[in-house]
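Here is an idea for our session: we take a single protein and study its fold together. To get us started, please write out a protein record for me. Once you have written the record down, we can walk along the chain together.
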Amino acid sequence: MSKKVLPSRRLSVAPMLDWTDRHYRYFARQITRNTWLYTEMVTTGALLYGDVARHLRYDEAEHPVALQLGGSEPDELARCAKLAEQWGYDEVNLNVGCPSERVQKGAFGACLMAEPALVSDCVKAMRDAVGIDVTVKHRIGIDAVEEYGYVRDFVGRVSEAGCTTFIVHARNAILKGLSPKENREIPPLKYDYVYRLKRDFPDFEILINGGVKTNDEIATHLEHVDGVMVGREAYHNPWLMADWDARFYGDAGEPASRDAVIAALLPYIEQRLAEPGAQLRHIARHILGLYQGQPGARVWRRMLSDSTLLKGADGSLLLAARDRVARD
Protein backbone atom coordinates (compact mmCIF):
# COMPACT_ATOMS: atom_id res chain seq x y z
CA MET A 1 0.00 0.00 0.00
CA SER A 2 1.43 3.41 -0.96
CA LYS A 3 1.95 5.92 1.80
CA LYS A 4 -0.49 8.82 1.97
CA VAL A 5 0.91 12.06 0.55
CA LEU A 6 0.64 14.70 3.27
CA PRO A 7 1.63 18.34 3.57
CA SER A 8 4.90 19.05 5.32
CA ARG A 9 4.91 19.88 9.03
CA ARG A 10 5.95 23.42 8.16
CA LEU A 11 3.11 24.70 10.37
CA SER A 12 1.26 22.91 13.15
CA VAL A 13 -1.02 23.68 16.08
CA ALA A 14 0.27 22.37 19.38
CA PRO A 15 -1.50 19.72 21.45
CA MET A 16 -3.20 21.60 24.30
CA LEU A 17 -5.07 19.82 27.08
CA ASP A 18 -8.77 20.76 27.22
CA TRP A 19 -8.39 22.92 24.12
CA THR A 20 -7.42 21.01 20.98
CA ASP A 21 -10.34 18.59 21.04
CA ARG A 22 -12.08 17.49 17.86
CA HIS A 23 -14.35 20.54 17.81
CA TYR A 24 -11.47 22.99 17.86
CA ARG A 25 -9.59 20.96 15.25
CA TYR A 26 -12.56 20.95 12.89
CA PHE A 27 -12.87 24.72 13.35
CA ALA A 28 -9.15 25.25 12.71
CA ARG A 29 -9.31 23.13 9.58
CA GLN A 30 -11.86 25.53 8.09
CA ILE A 31 -9.23 28.29 8.33
CA THR A 32 -6.17 26.40 7.08
CA ARG A 33 -6.01 23.42 4.74
CA ASN A 34 -2.39 22.33 5.20
CA THR A 35 -1.51 22.92 8.83
CA TRP A 36 -0.99 19.84 10.99
CA LEU A 37 -3.41 19.49 13.89
CA TYR A 38 -2.62 17.63 17.10
CA THR A 39 -4.97 16.09 19.62
CA GLU A 40 -4.87 16.80 23.30
CA MET A 41 -2.48 14.45 25.07
CA VAL A 42 -4.19 11.09 25.62
CA THR A 43 -2.67 8.74 28.16
CA THR A 44 -2.08 5.10 27.39
CA GLY A 45 -4.29 4.16 30.33
CA ALA A 46 -7.20 6.15 28.95
CA LEU A 47 -7.02 4.19 25.70
CA LEU A 48 -6.25 0.75 27.07
CA TYR A 49 -8.78 0.85 29.91
CA GLY A 50 -11.22 3.59 28.90
CA ASP A 51 -13.55 4.67 26.12
CA VAL A 52 -11.43 4.48 22.96
CA ALA A 53 -14.02 6.09 20.71
CA ARG A 54 -14.41 9.09 23.01
CA HIS A 55 -10.70 9.79 22.84
CA LEU A 56 -9.97 8.95 19.20
CA ARG A 57 -13.02 9.98 17.19
CA TYR A 58 -12.49 12.84 14.78
CA ASP A 59 -13.86 14.23 11.52
CA GLU A 60 -12.20 13.21 8.25
CA ALA A 61 -11.81 16.91 7.43
CA GLU A 62 -9.19 17.18 10.16
CA HIS A 63 -6.39 15.49 8.18
CA PRO A 64 -3.48 15.82 8.55
CA VAL A 65 -4.08 15.03 12.21
CA ALA A 66 -1.74 13.52 14.81
CA LEU A 67 -2.46 11.75 18.08
CA GLN A 68 -0.28 12.73 21.03
CA LEU A 69 0.27 9.99 23.58
CA GLY A 70 1.38 10.20 27.19
CA GLY A 71 3.03 7.14 28.65
CA SER A 72 6.33 5.46 29.46
CA GLU A 73 5.73 1.72 29.00
CA PRO A 74 6.97 0.62 25.55
CA ASP A 75 4.44 -2.18 25.17
CA GLU A 76 1.49 0.03 26.15
CA LEU A 77 2.63 2.81 23.84
CA ALA A 78 3.00 0.33 20.99
CA ARG A 79 -0.57 -0.91 21.52
CA CYS A 80 -1.88 2.64 21.58
CA ALA A 81 0.12 3.61 18.50
CA LYS A 82 -1.52 0.67 16.74
CA LEU A 83 -4.92 2.03 17.75
CA ALA A 84 -3.95 5.42 16.32
CA GLU A 85 -3.03 3.81 13.02
CA GLN A 86 -6.21 1.74 12.93
CA TRP A 87 -8.29 4.87 13.51
CA GLY A 88 -6.57 6.59 10.61
CA TYR A 89 -4.30 9.10 12.34
CA ASP A 90 -1.43 10.39 10.23
CA GLU A 91 1.15 10.48 13.03
CA VAL A 92 1.59 9.42 16.63
CA ASN A 93 3.55 11.77 18.88
CA LEU A 94 5.12 10.95 22.24
CA ASN A 95 4.81 13.63 24.93
CA VAL A 96 8.16 14.23 26.62
CA GLY A 97 7.44 17.84 27.47
CA CYS A 98 4.51 18.16 29.85
CA PRO A 99 5.77 19.30 33.29
CA SER A 100 2.62 18.89 35.39
CA GLU A 101 2.97 17.01 38.67
CA ARG A 102 -0.01 14.82 37.77
CA VAL A 103 1.79 13.68 34.63
CA GLN A 104 5.04 13.16 36.57
CA LYS A 105 3.22 10.86 38.97
CA GLY A 106 2.49 8.71 35.94
CA ALA A 107 6.23 8.73 35.16
CA PHE A 108 5.88 10.36 31.76
CA GLY A 109 5.97 13.79 30.17
CA ALA A 110 8.99 16.05 30.71
CA CYS A 111 10.52 13.86 33.42
CA LEU A 112 11.30 11.34 30.67
CA MET A 113 14.01 13.68 29.38
CA ALA A 114 16.12 12.28 32.21
CA GLU A 115 15.72 8.79 30.70
CA PRO A 116 16.63 9.01 27.01
CA ALA A 117 17.26 5.26 26.82
CA LEU A 118 13.68 4.59 27.95
CA VAL A 119 12.32 7.14 25.47
CA SER A 120 14.34 5.39 22.77
CA ASP A 121 12.81 2.05 23.77
CA CYS A 122 9.33 3.60 23.67
CA VAL A 123 9.90 5.04 20.22
CA LYS A 124 11.30 1.77 18.89
CA ALA A 125 8.31 -0.17 20.22
CA MET A 126 5.90 2.23 18.54
CA ARG A 127 7.82 2.29 15.26
CA ASP A 128 7.90 -1.50 15.20
CA ALA A 129 4.13 -1.57 15.65
CA VAL A 130 3.00 0.95 13.04
CA GLY A 131 3.74 2.31 9.59
CA ILE A 132 2.78 5.91 10.35
CA ASP A 133 5.31 8.45 11.59
CA VAL A 134 6.34 8.36 15.23
CA THR A 135 7.57 11.73 16.52
CA VAL A 136 8.69 13.15 19.88
CA LYS A 137 7.78 16.49 21.48
CA HIS A 138 10.16 17.55 24.23
CA ARG A 139 11.82 20.44 26.06
CA ILE A 140 15.42 21.65 25.80
CA GLY A 141 16.15 20.50 29.36
CA ILE A 142 14.77 19.97 32.83
CA ASP A 143 15.22 21.88 36.07
CA ALA A 144 18.61 23.60 36.38
CA VAL A 145 20.22 21.89 33.39
CA GLU A 146 21.30 24.73 31.11
CA GLU A 147 23.81 23.12 28.77
CA TYR A 148 22.93 22.72 25.10
CA GLY A 149 24.64 19.35 25.17
CA TYR A 150 21.79 17.91 27.27
CA VAL A 151 19.16 18.29 24.55
CA ARG A 152 21.69 17.43 21.82
CA ASP A 153 22.51 14.14 23.52
CA PHE A 154 18.83 13.43 24.19
CA VAL A 155 17.97 13.82 20.51
CA GLY A 156 20.97 11.77 19.48
CA ARG A 157 20.03 8.89 21.79
CA VAL A 158 16.34 8.86 20.81
CA SER A 159 17.22 9.01 17.13
CA GLU A 160 18.94 5.63 17.49
CA ALA A 161 15.42 4.16 17.64
CA GLY A 162 14.68 5.60 14.20
CA CYS A 163 12.91 8.82 15.18
CA THR A 164 13.79 11.64 12.80
CA THR A 165 11.16 14.26 13.71
CA PHE A 166 11.60 16.24 16.91
CA ILE A 167 9.26 19.00 18.08
CA VAL A 168 11.19 21.13 20.54
CA HIS A 169 9.64 23.49 23.07
CA ALA A 170 12.51 25.94 23.46
CA ARG A 171 12.27 26.17 27.27
CA ASN A 172 13.39 24.04 30.18
CA ALA A 173 10.72 22.24 32.16
CA ILE A 174 10.88 22.95 35.89
CA LEU A 175 9.54 19.78 37.46
CA LYS A 176 8.98 21.13 40.97
CA GLY A 177 7.75 24.53 42.06
CA LEU A 178 6.18 25.85 38.85
CA SER A 179 2.69 25.25 37.52
CA PRO A 180 2.21 24.18 33.88
CA LYS A 181 1.20 27.78 33.09
CA GLU A 182 4.34 29.13 34.76
CA ASN A 183 6.39 26.55 32.88
CA ARG A 184 5.15 28.11 29.65
CA GLU A 185 6.17 31.60 30.74
CA ILE A 186 9.00 31.70 33.30
CA PRO A 187 11.85 29.53 31.95
CA PRO A 188 13.59 31.63 29.28
CA LEU A 189 13.14 30.80 25.63
CA LYS A 190 16.33 29.61 23.97
CA TYR A 191 15.49 29.46 20.30
CA ASP A 192 19.19 29.25 19.45
CA TYR A 193 19.32 25.79 21.06
CA VAL A 194 16.71 24.55 18.58
CA TYR A 195 18.52 26.20 15.69
CA ARG A 196 21.71 24.44 16.78
CA LEU A 197 19.88 21.10 16.81
CA LYS A 198 19.02 21.59 13.16
CA ARG A 199 22.65 22.41 12.36
CA ASP A 200 23.90 19.39 14.31
CA PHE A 201 21.26 17.04 12.86
CA PRO A 202 20.70 18.40 9.33
CA ASP A 203 18.96 15.24 8.14
CA PHE A 204 16.34 15.35 10.91
CA GLU A 205 13.07 17.27 10.81
CA ILE A 206 13.30 19.84 13.60
CA LEU A 207 10.21 21.85 14.61
CA ILE A 208 10.30 24.75 17.06
CA ASN A 209 7.63 25.55 19.65
CA GLY A 210 7.18 28.11 22.38
CA GLY A 211 6.10 31.74 22.54
CA VAL A 212 5.35 32.20 18.84
CA LYS A 213 2.70 34.89 18.30
CA THR A 214 3.06 36.43 14.83
CA ASN A 215 3.49 35.31 11.25
CA ASP A 216 6.68 37.35 10.98
CA GLU A 217 8.10 35.37 13.91
CA ILE A 218 7.13 32.16 12.11
CA ALA A 219 8.93 33.33 8.97
CA THR A 220 12.07 34.09 10.98
CA HIS A 221 12.09 30.65 12.62
CA LEU A 222 11.63 28.95 9.25
CA GLU A 223 14.96 30.40 8.17
CA HIS A 224 16.57 28.07 10.73
CA VAL A 225 14.32 25.03 11.24
CA ASP A 226 11.89 22.87 9.28
CA GLY A 227 8.65 23.81 10.97
CA VAL A 228 6.94 25.92 13.60
CA MET A 229 4.35 24.71 16.08
CA VAL A 230 2.06 27.43 17.44
CA GLY A 231 0.11 26.98 20.64
CA ARG A 232 -2.12 29.40 22.50
CA GLU A 233 -1.95 32.17 19.93
CA ALA A 234 -3.56 29.84 17.35
CA TYR A 235 -6.34 29.18 19.87
CA HIS A 236 -7.06 32.69 21.13
CA ASN A 237 -6.42 34.43 17.80
CA PRO A 238 -7.32 31.74 15.26
CA TRP A 239 -7.44 34.11 12.30
CA LEU A 240 -3.64 34.20 12.54
CA MET A 241 -3.88 30.91 10.62
CA ALA A 242 -5.79 32.46 7.70
CA ASP A 243 -2.55 33.45 5.92
CA TRP A 244 -0.67 30.24 6.55
CA ASP A 245 -1.68 28.29 3.43
CA ALA A 246 -0.71 31.04 1.01
CA ARG A 247 2.32 32.44 2.85
CA PHE A 248 3.97 29.30 4.15
CA TYR A 249 2.71 26.54 1.85
CA GLY A 250 2.41 28.44 -1.43
CA ASP A 251 -1.21 27.28 -1.63
CA ALA A 252 -3.05 29.37 -4.22
CA GLY A 253 -6.47 28.01 -3.24
CA GLU A 254 -9.40 30.07 -2.07
CA PRO A 255 -8.45 31.93 1.12
CA ALA A 256 -10.63 31.48 4.16
CA SER A 257 -13.34 33.95 5.09
CA ARG A 258 -15.12 34.21 8.40
CA ASP A 259 -18.51 33.81 6.71
CA ALA A 260 -17.30 30.62 5.02
CA VAL A 261 -15.99 29.26 8.32
CA ILE A 262 -19.36 29.87 9.99
CA ALA A 263 -21.18 28.27 7.05
CA ALA A 264 -18.97 25.17 7.33
CA LEU A 265 -19.61 24.91 11.05
CA LEU A 266 -23.41 24.80 10.71
CA PRO A 267 -23.74 21.24 9.32
CA TYR A 268 -20.98 20.10 11.66
CA ILE A 269 -22.90 21.49 14.64
CA GLU A 270 -26.10 19.82 13.46
CA GLN A 271 -24.32 16.46 13.26
CA ARG A 272 -22.68 16.83 16.65
CA LEU A 273 -25.88 17.95 18.40
CA ALA A 274 -27.49 14.71 17.26
CA GLU A 275 -25.02 12.83 19.49
CA PRO A 276 -26.08 11.93 23.07
CA GLY A 277 -25.25 14.61 25.59
CA ALA A 278 -23.93 17.10 23.05
CA GLN A 279 -24.51 20.82 23.61
CA LEU A 280 -23.60 23.85 21.54
CA ARG A 281 -21.39 25.21 24.34
CA HIS A 282 -18.99 22.31 23.81
CA ILE A 283 -18.25 23.70 20.35
CA ALA A 284 -18.89 27.41 20.85
CA ARG A 285 -16.20 27.78 23.52
CA HIS A 286 -13.55 27.04 20.89
CA ILE A 287 -14.61 29.69 18.40
CA LEU A 288 -14.83 32.74 20.67
CA GLY A 289 -11.71 34.22 19.05
CA LEU A 290 -12.98 34.15 15.47
CA TYR A 291 -13.33 37.93 15.38
CA GLN A 292 -10.36 38.70 17.65
CA GLY A 293 -9.15 42.24 16.95
CA GLN A 294 -12.12 43.03 14.71
CA PRO A 295 -15.12 45.32 15.27
CA GLY A 296 -17.84 43.30 16.94
CA ALA A 297 -15.44 40.83 18.57
CA ARG A 298 -16.86 41.56 22.00
CA VAL A 299 -20.47 40.94 21.03
CA TRP A 300 -19.47 37.69 19.27
CA ARG A 301 -17.73 36.43 22.41
CA ARG A 302 -20.57 37.58 24.65
CA MET A 303 -23.33 35.88 22.66
CA LEU A 304 -21.44 32.61 22.28
CA SER A 305 -20.55 32.40 25.96
CA ASP A 306 -23.92 33.50 27.37
CA SER A 307 -25.30 30.50 29.27
CA THR A 308 -28.89 31.69 28.74
CA LEU A 309 -28.47 31.99 24.98
CA LEU A 310 -26.55 28.70 24.75
CA LYS A 311 -29.13 26.65 26.61
CA GLY A 312 -30.83 24.42 24.04
CA ALA A 313 -29.31 26.47 21.18
CA ASP A 314 -28.24 25.21 17.76
CA GLY A 315 -26.24 26.68 14.88
CA SER A 316 -28.69 29.52 14.45
CA LEU A 317 -27.01 31.24 17.41
CA LEU A 318 -23.85 31.58 15.30
CA LEU A 319 -25.87 33.25 12.56
CA ALA A 320 -27.49 35.62 15.04
CA ALA A 321 -24.09 36.50 16.49
CA ARG A 322 -22.62 37.02 13.02
CA ASP A 323 -25.49 39.37 12.13
CA ARG A 324 -24.90 41.34 15.31
CA VAL A 325 -21.22 41.62 14.45
CA ALA A 326 -22.12 42.93 11.02
CA ARG A 327 -24.30 45.65 12.55
CA ASP A 328 -21.72 46.82 15.09
